[in-house]
User: What shape does this take?
Amino acid sequence: MKLTQFFCLAIIAVLSTTRAQANNVDDKLISVIETSKPKIIALSPHIVEMLFDIGAGEQIIASTEYANYPLAAKKIPRIGSSMRIQLERVIELQPDLIIAWKSGNPSDDLARIKQLGFNVVYSQPDSFNDVAKELRLFGKLTGHSKQAEQVATKFLADLADIKKKYGNEKPLTGFYEVWSRPLTTIAKGSWPQQFLDICSINNPFETAETGYPQVNIEKVLQANIDVIIQPLSKKQAGVDGYNWQQWPILPAVKHQQIIILDADIAHRMTTRSLHALTDLCQQADKSRTYYQQNTDNKVSKN
Assistant: This one.
């Protein structure tokens, strides 16, 4: 057997083992909690929202800060934040299931919760497809498989429609502003990069080493940016965004092609993220039309 074949088979074996172990973990948890609708602690706003989507919202007994959607979620007791989970409250509430955000909750608190013997499932949706997978998983875990399947299927069908409509448009060059101080954007592997890919927007910083690289303005000025995408939460609007108007040499600024997105929707990994995706694709299309008309009128973008 050739060495490369050996390594391929070894990798396949490792991946198969890993998947089998993951499935075994899920199956074991399901067997523990399937006898009734479990009481759930949901340790992130996106987890709360997905549970409401599949009909399991009333089973949530506690969550963390900013779990504000849907409206009923605001009544859920809070037991922590992204910085700290109140372990004494977890023990007091005795949940049947805890769904934690793997990269968003304090790792030391999660380790302690596991040591205490609670049933813990981790959420880490890094893509739209992951959202559908987690909806189905949460359905199995909470006794709402049928509704979860319906929601996931519709979500993927809507996503496919958006890709079909906007995926082959003439590319624009865009700058996605994650944070203004320091100026921070996105790259491959980040959640928002898939928005740009689907809306046919090229990201000049896509190949940066980190998912959310800090950049200096000189690099942005060199990239001939057609559109600036500025996601802002309701609290940030008009306050925390970068002041792009000081750089009129940028085509996006000169032609006022600045797209504002609702960060509270765009950056939350739920079914509502498709609303933000559609909004971005539609606004990008308007920019294409603008530039096309100006090109037809022999007006240079620069």
